[in-house]
Amino acid sequence: MDNRPDFTKLVNLASHRLGAQAIFATDDFFADKQRLLDDGPAQWKEDVYDDNGKWMDGWESRRKREEGHDYCVVRLGLTGKILGVDIDTSHFTGNYPPSASLEACYCPDGDPERDQQWTEVLPSLSLNGDSHHFAEISSSNVFTHVRFHIYPDGGVARLRVYGYPEIDWERVHPETELDLVAVENGGRALACNDQHFGHMSNLIMPGRGVNMGDGWETARRRVPGNDWVILSLGHAGIIDRIEIDTAHFKGNYPDSISIQAAVVNGGTDEQIATQSLFWRELLPSQKLSADNIHEFIDQLNALGAVSHVRVNIFPDGGISRVRLIGRKSG
């Protein structure tokens, strides 16, 4: 059973694949600061050493022999509001920091200078070894960077910064075509019935999938029915074109796909999933093929503006990306 907080369903603004960068660290002698932002789970490599010592999958500073503490500055991949963090010390046992804190700032025109004003969003939090530390953050501000403090030194495997990307939709012209469900435009994967082999959030990530694991894939279905996923658009809009990419899925792509859509004004993710059974059909059932980008234009029904879609695959399998190309509604 997944007992992670609800905010972990949001976008990891500090994701390397979304462009996040660790731009400064006081020290990363044992393990490179950029590993802190890797998207995959931290790995343990038995008996692997480099010139500086044991290879660790994360950011690790040397043992401090003077006053002070270490910190790392991260440029977020997407500007946004922060609702929670996960400080992950996986595989760090005798070398994790006893505590950590987090500051953030808004610096849209570049990276922070020495005189930058920072806002504390997470006071000092006690840490344990080889553990996930989830903490909610309550701030209505928008941030571009975070400064991650560890006291006094040591190693952390991953820093995940969950929140909502901030898009200034007022500056988007009504006739501008864009992918309304892309994560960089505020799209979210809300719910699905199965994600055994690949997480649903991969569907709205930038670029094509890099391998079969970089997509949404369900287990082999042994009972009647079909699999589905609910996606929330970053802004309600009119969808003109749909692209379904089955990159790298060859012997396990779905036989066919259909998409339902609606305007949703509220409700939990579970309530929205229940409502989706009765949404109107945006894309009638279409055959899919292996490792291919499928474009649908004339096949779409004219539903007007929608805010959510339900992607149905028959009966099961994997797809890499879903693109909903259209224009924002008024």
How would you describe what is shown here?
It is globular, with a radius of gyration of 21 Å. It has two domains: 160 residues, Galactose-binding domain-like (Jelly Rolls), CATH 2.60.120.260; 159 residues, Galactose-binding domain-like (Jelly Rolls), CATH 2.60.120.260. The chain is built from one helix and 22 strands. The protein is mainly β. It starts with 10 loop residues before the first strand and ends with a strand. 42% of the residues are buried. The strands form five sheets. Strands 1, 2, 6, 7, 8, 9, 10 and 12 form an eight-stranded antiparallel beta sheet that branches. Pathway: Nitrogen metabolism; (S)-allantoin degradation; (S)-ureidoglycolate from allantoate (aminidohydrolase route): step 1/1. It comes from Enterovibrio gelatinilyticus. Its EC number is 3.5.3.4. Belongs to the allantoicase family.
Topology:
Elements: E1 11-12, E2 21-25, E3 49-50, E4 53-54, E5 59-60, E6 70-88, E7 99-105, E8 119-126, E9 132-136, E10 143-151, E11 155-156, E12 158-165, E13 178-179, E14 188-192, E15 216-217, E16 227-245, E17 256-262, H1 269-275, E18 280-287, E19 293-296, E20 306-314, E21 318-319, E22 321-328
Jot down its keywords.
Allantoicase; single chain; 8-stranded antiparallel β-sheet; mainly beta; globular; Jelly Rolls; 330 residues; 2 domains; Probable allantoicase; purine metabolism; 1 helix
